[in-house]
């Protein structure tokens, strides 16, 4: 197999299909989505069988338990996958939405129309559920997609792709609107991220290593998601009760998610009042505290934090703790050590809150709320293709809207420019 | 001079300044802009003297007349430059704008806040007025900028930069918020477009050759502007009077602008009725017609159009003309041969108009209006840093808003995720 030629063909077919899917009406797209969901439910047993083959091969290859876990599809997982596709069908169609139409002094009326981006390449790890999810979001937003999942999931992904293409055909839409890359050759990724002629944007969903590699090599714009080193800052005017609850939820609700807090900052004036209860809660939940020397003065059993700890995304029951002089130092610390993902302040002070909102340079900035809310569903996007830590195009949770752009429309009545 | 080290320093200083300029309040930014405008007016003679040195060197180097023309500053041009900077001061500040705040079922209120992109690199030809213009737009939108103009304008640009930095200092803002690259070495551009750590976006303003080179080499996102091959399509239901006026204005108001029409498409049913008057108008204005065989049947003296003509941005009194079967062929032709810049339909038919608006894949799509309206000022943006023919981030005329992004803000009252 000539990988370069194969990827060129995939790109060409995607571009052709993108023209047709871009102008498909909402009914056709929703019919396709419902047909895909129905086919997934109907063929649950076949999907589970394909997945068992992937799992057997992965176990034989000695894949780590965490990765085996992500690779595994259960009957419940397949049902959730179908349900997810149906949910995308129920969302409003972003394509064709017209906004901000305003008359200008020349007599023309100028506004914007939301349109698909074109062809979207999704690169992700061996998680078969992402295949259905990403296909559904791209389809609904009028984009053609090229899906490249981790090679360990190839049998599961092929099985899902067949059902997606069946659904597209049922609705009279081009099968190439969703293509799953058929080869597990890693060179395919290298070609995908340089197919500038055929691919409009790459959405990588995966670990930091994957993203860093893609960033270095990609010739196509990316909606990228690096790490989530999220902070909770307890301001001088923090409400102790809210502080405790927000730290607990931000850090301990789930340890492995990108919107989990990895660092706690406390204004010096509140440390004595709030840290003992927070430390007791964290210790009781088995969270290791790595603190600055002022933290250690209060919590002698805690470990000393290093520079690396303040920059780390632990994804584990570990939290770095630092006492700061106040808002200025907190903002500086977050903008320096953070990953521009999600950061929260706990404060009752209007001026502190407004400054934190404006000056913290992160995709999501929160007041008196858990960092765990940084999520497309919690924000009301209805779905999420990823969380962008970039500033260009889309920032933070990316839903259907982030997979579109806006063109200008001008409605005239024979006007010409003077 | 070690160019790489120099550019690293420029980038580092820009990043530092960007943090301060991002949180500068509107008054400080406007004070700086008004001080810059005043300094430009005050030092008009010095600017003209620096420009005369550039012109003398350029003439000695045998620069083409069109480029000499762009390089030339007149007293009137300097006054217009200062006026432009004052106009930017008068625009609303986009930074900090909060929109779409909505309560979610969890109790949190989620919305967006507009924030600067960070550091913007502007690469442009030897046009000194762009220096003041780009500096003003980046400053107002809270971004630090690195300006690299054509080397022939280096003396003029240095003189303008000194006044810009004086204005920044007057307002207590960091001088490094606007840096003009001091070297004419072309290697500086190569470094600028790969300074991913320090530069958030590159805005190239220049010819197709420049953009193509940057596209091939850039490691930083670009707001790019390729060519403008704009179309006017006269539909079956075109009003002949509007058709004539719109073709005249779109093609002949100015020949060298990117929103000038380069191609005329006519539905077969209207050719006999409208083409003779349009051809007479074009011929009378000295516009050369390059037509399809059906065009030539009516206009035997016209030249036959080649494939290249349909794809060309003439920037000259030349127009390609093609008779099409109707709307479908027109849309297909535009999406195939066009440059996704600006295209217009002339029609009284609702369904044709709606399909044209939806299906033509261009940054600006117009109904019964001249393509010449595709412009930041005509659209009400108040200013324009460029016109993007890309789809990611910004499309079409880019004003202050295109130099910003939106972060998410969450206002809570102690909410945690369930």
UniProtKB/TrEMBL annotation, chains A, B:
GO terms for molecular function: glutamate-5-semialdehyde dehydrogenase activity; NADP binding. Its EC number is 1.2.1.41. One of its GO terms (biological process) is L-proline biosynthetic process. Pathway: Amino-acid biosynthesis; L-proline biosynthesis; L-glutamate 5-semialdehyde from L-glutamate: step 2/2. Residues 11-283, 311-374 form the Aldehyde dehydrogenase domain. One of its GO terms (cellular component) is cytoplasm. Pfam families: Aldedh (PF00171). It comes from the Bacteria. Its main location: cytoplasm. It catalyses: L-glutamate 5-semialdehyde + phosphate + NADP(+) = L-glutamyl 5-phosphate + NADPH + H(+). Gene3D superfamilies: Aldehyde Dehydrogenase, Chain A, domain 1 (3.40.605.10), Aldehyde Dehydrogenase, Chain A, domain 2 (3.40.309.10). It is an enzyme of class 1 (oxidoreductase). It is found in: Cytoplasm. Keywords: Amino-acid biosynthesis, Cytoplasm, NADP, Oxidoreductase, Proline biosynthesis. Catalyzes the NADPH-dependent reduction of L-glutamate 5-phosphate into L-glutamate 5-semialdehyde and phosphate. The product spontaneously undergoes cyclization to form 1-pyrroline-5-carboxylate. PANTHER family: DELTA-1-PYRROLINE-5-CARBOXYLATE SYNTHASE, GLUTAMATE SEMIALDEHYDE DEHYDROGENASE. Belongs to the gamma-glutamyl phosphate reductase family. This is Gamma-glutamyl phosphate reductase. It comes from Candidatus Accumulibacter aalborgensis.
